[in-house]
Amino acid sequence: MWFGACTSSIGTWMQILAQSWLVYRLTNSPFYLSLDAFFGQAPIFLLSLFGGVFADRVSRRRLLLMSQVIQLTCAFTLAFLVATNLVKVWQIWCLSFTVGVAQSFGGPAYSALVPTLVKKEDLQNAIALNSIQFNLARVVGPALGGIALIKLGAFWCFFLNGLSFLAVIGTLLAIRPTFIPAGTGSSVIDSMKQGIDFMRKREGMLSLIGLAFFITLLSYPMITFLPVIAKTVFHGTSNTFTLFLCISGAGSVTGALLVAGQSAQPGRAKTSLQALVVMGVMIAIIGVSYFLPLTTAAIFMVGSLMMVVFALNTSLVQAQVGDAMRGRVMSVYNVAFRGGMPIGSVVCGYLIEKFSIPVVLAGNGILVVILALYFLLIQKKLAKL
Question: How far apart are CA 184 and CA 306, in angstroms?
């Protein structure tokens, strides 16, 4: 499962690089670039709750297979549009939205499936190792994508991404999960209410979900607007953008390795909040820096700390839920986690055009620090987990 997902993630990051650069080249607009991110993430925000209910009712493997086939089809469609010179920005938006719909059902199924492949005491390590494959792909994918984009063109980035889905489809057919949902006689809405009631009764669960939303709201725009930083701040090319993506991915792999090597211990929430403080400072530095080595180092640190925060917080959520409820709980967490991305991207895209990207990123970094300090110094219950 790890190797199949890693192969697919490499293809996905090749497409993310080429698609971001293609949208920005076609429009020369940070706002249009943010809209592409919005259309890709909005369905996840809107539909993941339903995806979580289905992940607790039907085979999670079957849901994932359907999701992968849809994403494969979208990648090949975009490759065809580029190859025939028919590609328009609205078409890219439509395909991004379709991929988002597929991920809104595949995401909760995947989050619920991974813990059924390991023992409970290995859960934190498994989550971190899963983060490693995703973020290793963030290094390899943009590097390969940058080469393919420059030497061969955007078509090959999209076509190779389509092929990469065959790897994860093959591994999904090969695995044998230890838990298969038995279904339920209750309605979809009742099942959703059961999941929400379960989370309300678990101490710190709602705080972790709220924190996931605000972290992505404030920090993810830095990833979305890396092409803008590369072009407007450093007057670079796609090579500069590729460098930033690879450095960010390398930082994330480093952070995930740190978490994967640790055993599950009390105090994980406090460690996560402390890392969040430093991450906010690094985002602010990216905003005010015009020195390429400093910006590159700060991007590495943000990638590393972001992964430490996400891996620790996800393991805290997963540790408090059983297999029968896992799909619904993780769907709510994914709504919060992924929901902050499109909202943050659109708001920041609008603000960047009104002000500038240094001002917006510096403000986001300061807000991240304030958020972490609130849970460390005022709302202290979360920090005790």
Answer: 37
Q: Does residue 187 come out as left (phi exceeding 0), alpha (psi in the -120 to 50 range) or beta?
A: beta
Is 38 in contact with 342 (CB distance < 8 Å)?
yes
Please, which residues have CB within 8 angstroms of residue 35's CB and are 6 or more apart in sequence?
A: 93, 346, 349
Which residue range is the domain that position 144 belongs to?
2-174+188-384
When divided into structural domains, the chain yields a total of: 1
C-alpha to C-alpha distance for 256 and 269, rounded to whole angstroms:
16
Q: How many Cα atoms are found within 13 Å in the side-chain-facing hemisphere of 260? A: 16
Q: What is the pTM of this model?
A: 0.69
- Single out the residue of 272, 271, 222, 218 nearest to residue 248, CA to CA: 222
Q: Confirm whether 348 is domain-assigned.
A: yes
Gap between the Cα atoms of 286 and 46, Å rounded: 31
Contact 248, 219 (CB under 8 A): no
Give residue-wise pLDDT tens across range 242-284: 788 788 878 887 887 887 777 666 677 788 889 999 999 999 9
